[in-house]
Design brief:
Chain B: Keywords: Electron transport, FAD, Flavoprotein, Transport. The complex is a heterodimer. By secondary structure, chain A is of the alpha/beta class. Chain A contains seven helices and 13 strands. In chain A, α2 crosses α5 and α3 packs across α4. Chain B has two domains: about 160 residues, HUPs (Rossmann fold); about 120 residues, TPP-binding domain (Rossmann fold). The chains are: A alpha/beta, B alpha/beta.
Chain lengths: ~250, ~300
């Protein structure tokens, strides 16, 4: 069984984000970039399924700038067998990405697509659901457990009130939540091996998809800062302030 | 202009988040229709009809919609939504699940988790875990939007008198099925809509120690939350998580106990009206956003707080 794992290159989650002075966006110059954390969980899940013998091939795919090759190499160091970069320097948005991924799905015919539930830059949480819609596949979003069965997959989902389990016919799309697994680190020998694994580069034109953005970003601002308040010396003082000053209890 | 609001509910009662979505719909303008899809969900439709500002309620009552499976709901919304300029849902796990799928079926963009309406095409939304606010403009003729409920003041539950019509569109994609669910049972208020929230972090040490928070919460009528660190450490289940990757809350009072204040936690609670932090580390970043900070050992301060309430 083949698994497709779409991944995204984003700002490293440890980096403190700064809004550009002209409010055109976030300053990404000389900032450390990395694989989106939810995508790492997706790669890890695919690798675990391969280790269990359920999956035979893992194909990683990314849509973005040339530099996204780094993240695809990381995915291969973690266990993906080969990868595809759909190279573009244009702004890409979930619907366009989903269309490009659908074209890849049509070529590769995976039985399972595992991807992160959201990227930590745009926080959209859309791509997996949109890909599922375009391909007519069922979707198991925000997964905390994935169990493959004959011709189907059972996905336990993190929902607001607790957990929900759904059964999906294959092929299916799964998006990962935090507790699905804890991703491993790539070992040095595997990083070296990954350099020799195949990485195909395609253009959006090769796929014949229209990725024109539908949404324009008019401006990006720093959120209103919260002012630090006062320190209280005792529980008594705290209770007094909450009752008589803030009047919230 | 006409807005379709997708109702969030459990087939028995309307979720309050929907009242905030209706508030966002009012800011956009035009007639507001609420779509209630479920099974045996008539009471929900009646409830929605009473909400302020609603002109019509469509009730799609069918087995296929009982568990809000995205495959079926998205097809329903794409078909019913054809008549509307805007389709709004709450940015809950239900809304986030079906809204992008419905948008893709209609070949339009989806705008996630808006926190403000600028005009009918332009919205504000947090990006980078709330570290930046983007103003975005959508060029598509139809807008599919999820709304952050805590950013809009809910409309009144009573006062409206909309008509309820049944919607006989049945969409059963037949590719997914519901197996079961485990819902957290609690007599305390729901985390996302509670007036007071008290949350514990890694400093709680273990799950049993959360008992001291439950005691205080019960005195205050508060919900209990947790930081991602406390969830990752296995102290409490994930549905208690407050933060970028958990629930977004904005209560009147938020009490952070033993929480250092990582950016991803702040993203989930910094719109709270009053924030209290109790932490033994005076350098903890949580104190930079707290209205009232108390440097103390939580195992002494929390029981003392309990005794003085």
């Amino acid at each position: 069984m083949k698994v497709l794992v779409p991944i995204k290159r984003v700002i490293d989650y440890n980096v403190k984000v700064r809004v550009k002075a002209d409010n055109s966006g976030v300053d990404l110059a000389n900032v450390k970039m990395a694989m989106n954390p939810f995508c790492e969980i997706a790669v890890e899940e695919a690798v675990r399924l391969k280790e269990k013998g359920v999956v035979s091939e893992i194909v990683a795919v990314s849509i973005g700038p040339k530099a996204a090759q780094e993240q695809l190499r990381t995915a291969m160091a973690l266990g993906a067998d080969r990868s595809i970069l759909v190279e573009t320097d244009e702004d890409v948005q979930p619907l366009g990405i989903a269309k490009a991924l659908k074209a890849i799905v049509d070529e590769e015919k995976p039985e399972l697509v595992i991807l992160g539930k959201q990227a930590i830059d745009d926080d959209n949480n859309q791509t997996g659901q949109m890909l599922a819609a375009l391909t007519g596949m069922p979707q198991g979003t925000f997964a905390s457990e994935v169990n493959m069965e004959e011709g189907k997959v059972k996905v336990t989902r993190e929902i607001d009130g607790g957990l929900q389990t759904v059964e999906l016919k294959l092929p299916a799309v799964v998006t990962t939540d935090l507790r699905l697994n804890e991703p491993r680190y790539a070992s040095l020998p595997n990083i070296m091996k990954a350099k020799k694994k195949p990485l195909d580069v395609k253009s959006p034109a090769d796929l014949g998809v229209d990725m024109t953005p539908r949404v324009t970003i008019e401006k990006v601002e720093t959120p209103a800062e919260r002012k630090a308040g006062v320190m209280v010396g005792s529980v008594d003082e705290l209770v007094d302030k909450l009752k008589n000053e803030a009047k919230v209890i | 202009m006409s807005v379709l609001v997708y109702a969030e509910h459990d087939n028995a009662a309307l979720n309050k988040a929907t009242l905030s979505v209706i508030a966002a719909a009012k800011e956009i303008g035009g007639d507001i229709t609420v779509l209630v899809a479920g099974k045996g969900c008539n009471a929900v439709a009646e409830q929605a009809a009473k909400a302020e500002g609603v002109s019509k309620v469509l009730c799609a009552d069918n087995d296929a919609y009982e568990h809000q499976l995205a495959e079926n709901i998205a097809e329903l919304v794409a078909e019913v939504g054809a008549d509307y300029s805007h389709i709004l849902a709450a940015a809950t796990t239900t809304g986030k699940n079906f809204a992008p799928r419905a948008a893709a079926l209609m070949d339009v963009a989806q705008i996630s988790e808006i926190s403000d309406v600028v005009d009918a095409d332009t919205f504000k939304r947090p990006i980078y875990a709330g570290n930046a606010i983007a103003t975005v403009k959508c060029a598509d003729a139809k807008k599919v939007i999820t709304v952050r409920p805590t950013s809009f003041d809910a409309v009144a539950e009573e006062g409206g008198s909309a008509s309820v019509e049944s919607c006989d569109v049945v969409k059963d994609a037949g590719i997914s099925s519901f197996v079961g669910e485990e819902l957290a049972k609690s007599d305390r208020p729901e985390l996302a809509s509670a007036e007071i929230v008290i949350s514990g972090g890694r400093g709680m040490g273990n799950g049993d120690n959360f008992e001291i928070l439950y005691k205080v919460a019960d005195k205050l009528g508060a919900a209990v939350g947790a930081s991602r660190a406390a969830v990752d450490a296995g102290f409490v289940p994930n549905d208690m998580q407050v933060g970028q990757t958990g629930k977004i809350v904005a209560p009147n009072l938020y009490v952070a106990v033993g929480i250092s204040g990582a950016i991803q936690h702040l993203a989930g609670m910094k719109d709270s009206k009053v924030i209290v932090a109790i932490n033994k580390d005076e350098e903890a970043p949580i104190f930079q956003v707290a209205d009232y900070g108390l440097v103390a050992d939580l195992f002494e301060a929390v029981p003392e707080l309990d005794s003085k309430l």
